[in-house]
Write a structure and sequence with these properties.
- The protein is mainly beta.
- It contains two helices and 20 strands.
- The strands form three sheets. A nine-stranded antiparallel β-sheet has the order 7-8-10-11-20-17-16-13-14.
- β2 and β3 form a beta hairpin.
- The longest helix has 12 residues.
Length: 356
């Protein structure tokens, strides 16, 4: 029987599901056993409106067709934001989704501390993609950048929004990063100055679900992302979860799943197969990224990689998957952010990676 990613039953909206997200996790609770079947992917529709149907590869459509017009999503707050919150430890974890970054998370707080740099749109906790290679490689992001190559305001790229108290689902047309944008981390797969922004194909359509908490793990932020490509790609790097963390989180750690221990990471450590953590020097606050590997039945499926890299005024943390010769259509993956003290984050990683 194939394991699936456990999610809080009360967090599931009334929606039809189809497809699946690769990977597996284990709940902290010793009582709960692994359950069968992979997690179905989300379906996103306008708030309060009918759902679009199962999330799967969309039917073949002209790559250059424009998005169909849709009513603007309704935001619960007048400033175009949505707050998700869940108690954990001595405080509560709070996420703020914002219209200004096309529905990405622009604020993450716990215990009075902000975990995101939030000085520009690229600092959001968001999904990113690199498509192609060499001079033809292009970068796309959920939140966009000040030099957004699409020319459309971020709010117009958000097509749909659904939400509950601790979950939200969005459908967003990603934005091509402008050709003069700096690389998001060293080294980058895409050149700093890549091809002309006037490209024929639209950026990927992103369907994403963000949820707070897993059974027994109240400090987990679950991100399920489906990247829908309009054209095949010879090379593809997908980041369901990437964030710019304030420079105060200056201690970088590597978690060893085989021992449950931590080892320090040097600057510019690059991508690695083990989960990575950014923490304050005293360990009072920490943020980690982790993702499940593919099930045993799919040994050739993409495996997650994790990276931490310094940037001007921030440290970049990301969870990513690489594919070669990717087909057009949907590519579904799940990543997790873990919030709390360094001890909290380590305990959560041990729970997620310890065999049952």
């Amino acid at each position: 029987m194939q394991p699936r990613i456990p999610t809080r039953p009360q967090a599931r909206p009334q929606a039809r599901f189809g497809g699946r997200v690769r990977g597996r996790v284990r709940a902290e609770s010793r009582v709960a056993a692994r359950v069968a079947a992979l997690v179905p992917a989300l379906v996103v529709g306008p708030l309060g409106g009918p759902l679009a149907g199962p999330l799967a590869a969309p039917p073949a459509a002209p790559a250059r067709a424009a998005d169909a017009p849709a009513p603007a999503p309704l935001w619960p707050e007048p400033d175009g934001t949505l707050i998700l919150a869940r108690p954990f430890g001595r405080s509560e974890i709070s996420l703020r989704l914002s219209r200004r970054v096309a529905g990405a998370v622009d604020t993450l707080t716990w215990d009075g501390v902000t975990f995101l740099a939030d000085t520009e749109p690229g600092d959001a906790l968001q999904a990113r993609a690199e498509i192609g290679s060499g001079a033809a490689c292009r970068r796309a992001s959920e939140a966009g950048t000040p030099q957004d190559g699409s020319g459309a305001p971020a709010a117009r790229r958000l097509r749909a929004l659904r939400a509950g108290r601790s979950w939200a689902e969005t459908e967003t047309r990603m934005a091509w990063d402008g050709p003069a944008d700096p690389a998001d981390e060293p080294p980058a797969d895409c050149p700093t100055a890549s091809a002309s922004p006037a490209i024929p194909a639209p950026a990927p359509l992103l369907r994403k679900r963000v949820a707070l908490g897993l059974p027994g793990l109240g400090n987990a932020v679950e991100v399920q992302a489906s990247f829908n490509l309009t054209e095949p790609a010879a090379a593809l790097r997908l980041e369901p979860l990437a964030a710019a963390v304030p420079p105060e989180f200056s201690a970088a750690w590597r978690f060893d799943p085989s021992t449950g221990g931590l080892a320090p990471l040097g600057p510019g450590a690059g991508e690695r197969p083990d989960p990575v953590i950014l923490a304050t020097p005293e360990g009072s606050h920490a943020l980690a990224v982790w993702a499940p590997g593919p099930p045993e039945q799919e040994p050739d499926a993409p495996r997650p990689g994790f990276a931490v890299a310094p940037e001007a005024g921030a440290n970049r943390l990301s969870c990513r998957f690489r594919l070669a010769n990717a087909a057009a259509g949907a590519h579904d993956f799940a990543c997790y952010a873990l919030v709390g003290t360094l001890a909290d984050v380590r305990a959560a990683l041990r729970s997620l990676t310890t065999p049952p």
